């Protein structure tokens, strides 16, 4: 099935149900289909055809969903752009994609105007929110275009999205994702639209990220109502959940932590939440334990994946979040909370050494995965594709291990592993220990070059507000709970850790900040 059929099915089954609630707008499924058809016909008049690339630079709005389905209906390729990227990065993305059209939100018009002389292939600029000289206007295109269905011969293996990864070094890579990349997961894990069952999803994860796109696809196929927030704001999020009686949420760990730490948290009725899915960054054990206490009637799911795997490849199920049984069973289940769960039914996973040979259980190596949803490769980059896809396996760059019961645990990115005197040290293991200190709010562990040991373990710590911490406290706390060579020998304090938009800590920034200059 190609993804355009998701909207066809839901608009036929529940045409009057709101598909999207965004600020003052409530767009029914019938209206969403109508608007997507009008935009598709309008883009076709501009010359967009099968295989052409159409970029979009906008925060989460109903227009993002309309634009995806319009582009997909034409058999063209949707290019969602990171709205936090700089002008030079965006220019690189649009030029390497050979984009024909770009749709631009109001707050990015000035930046795009400055980029225009360097955009080599873009022929049509469309303003999404207001009329602007030199731009076509989104509203005019919809008003002047036909609402008739658009029919294109689309194969399930055809690329539907070109998604640029948010790399921490160099320019991002364009990941080619097919209709199958999304439809296989959605059809295996989501109940199709039902006229008698209504659910509401709140979506705050950005739609330039694969987790946001996957959540959007699942909601449309399931006939759910998407409650959209431009960007995550804890207070607005709680107000929306309470007002709209939201049932499902997708969050990254930093969002969940900000939510529970918000001083207004206890003032809002969030009891309608039945499922919270989290992922995109490691979840600190103390945060998920607190969440399980605060949301006793909510089921939690940890979904792990990456852009190259079209998001979710492993899942820690709601049952894995129920901590009951004997003391031994509780201890085992608590440990599993720090895992990423087990592979999905359509995914094979292994942990391999540097030679690509599978290692024994509980031995750290690189996690590799394969399945029908994986990317077909990097756009115009066969060399990087060959380094990532080997014999059909995606080499994720994530280090980890599999326990005796088949649960996978992360041990850091391959580039983040610390090697001290020949011993491999997982930053995640040290972080989990330091995070458990009652005076610690946040922590990142990095390797610092050292002449004698190769690298030393440094903990960059954010103390809890009002607490006083010493370097010696952190070192001793980690020494008592870890093998001696893993302890935090160096400690620095900081007000806030640098993170990318999905909450992942930018360790490169910390290494640049704290590594000795001569290193």
Topology, pairings included?
Layout: H1 4-13, E1 18-22, E2 25-28, H2 29-45, E3 53-57, H3 62-73, E4 77-80, H4 87-97, E5 101-104, H5 109-115, E6 124-127, E7 136-137, H6 138-144, E8 159-164, E9 174-178, H7 179-189, E10 200-203, H8 210-221, E11 225-228, H9 234-244, E12 248-251, H10 253-261, E13 275-279, H11 285-294, E14 299-306, E15 311-316, H12 327-336, E16 342-343, E17 348-352, E18 365-370, E19 377-378, H13 382-388, E20 389-390, E21 393-402, E22 408-413, E23 418-420, E24 423-425, H14 427-435, E25 440-450, E26 454-463, H15 471-481, E27 490-493, H16 507-514
Parallel strand pairs: 1-11, 3-4, 3-5, 5-6, 6-7, 10-11, 10-12, 12-13, 13-14, 26-27
Antiparallel strand pairs: 1-2, 8-9, 9-19, 14-15, 15-16, 17-18, 18-21, 20-21, 21-22, 23-24, 25-26
Helix pairs in contact: 1-2, 2-3, 2-6, 7-8, 10-11
Would you give an account of this structure?
α11 links the parallel β13 and β14 (299-306). The model has no long low-confidence stretch (mean pLDDT 92). The longest helix has 17 residues, at 29-45. Among the domains are: 4-231, ANL, N-terminal domain (Rossmann fold), CATH 3.40.50; 427-514, GMP Synthetase, Chain A, domain 3, CATH 3.30.300.30. The protein is globular, with a radius of gyration of 23 Å. It is built from 16 helices and 27 strands. A nine-stranded mixed sheet has the order 2-1-11-10-12-13-14-15-16, with helices on both faces. A five-stranded parallel sheet has the order 4-3-5-6-7. The termini are far apart. By secondary structure, it is α/β, with parallel strands linked by helices. It is 31% helix and 26% strand.
